[in-house]
Amino acid sequence: MFSKFHSRKGFTLIELMIVVVIIGILAALAIPRFMQATVKSKQSEAKGILKQIYTMERTYRQENGAYLACADAAALVAIGVEIPATAIYTYSVATAGNGFTATSIANLDDDATVDTWTIDDTGLLQCTIDDVTT
């Protein structure tokens, strides 16, 4: 009447442990890549706004004969650049002679090093201090 073989339902402890180990390995590979991708997206904010500042400073100089120094986001409105309230970086523009340097600064990973990007009047955009690799 009763069969010697019972149908097994569910998983054994070994099977569950193997699944947990596989998920752990996948997470160990995915989390650093995810963190790197989020930092790159944050840095793209700085690049985009600095390029906008470069364009608007050049336009301002054509109209007024000189570049405009801007100490903060509120001063950038004078050249037509509005920094969103959700911006991660802080922006400023320094002038010297017939040139300017726009700078963006942010602490992306809550350490002592800040991520710093600059663009100058020649259009050279560069990361002077990389918060992620230092």
Outline the structure in words:
With 134 residues, the chain is an alpha+beta fold. It has one domain. The chain has 2 helices and 4 strands; from the N terminus they run ααββββ. It has helices at residues 13-64, 73-76, and strands at 90-96, 99-106, 115-120, 125-129. The protein has a 4-stranded antiparallel β-sheet with strand order 1-2-3-4, with helices on one face. A hairpin with a 2-residue loop joins strand 1 (90-96) and strand 2 (99-106). The longest helix is centred in the first third of the chain and has 52 residues, at 13-64. The N and C termini lie far apart (73 Å).
What characteristics describe this protein?
single chain, 134 residues, alpha+beta, four-stranded antiparallel beta sheet, 2 helices, 42% helix, rod-shaped
List the helices and strands and how they pair.
Elements: H1 13-64, H2 73-76, E1 90-96, E2 99-106, E3 115-120, E4 125-129
Antiparallel strand pairs: 1-2, 2-3, 3-4
How many domains? The number is 1
- Uncertain segments: none
What's the overall geometry?
Answer: rod-shaped
Strands of the widest sheet, in order across it, are 1-2-3-4
- Sheet having the most strands: 4 strands, antiparallel
Proportion of helical residues = 40-55%
Structure summary:
It contains 2 helices and 4 strands.
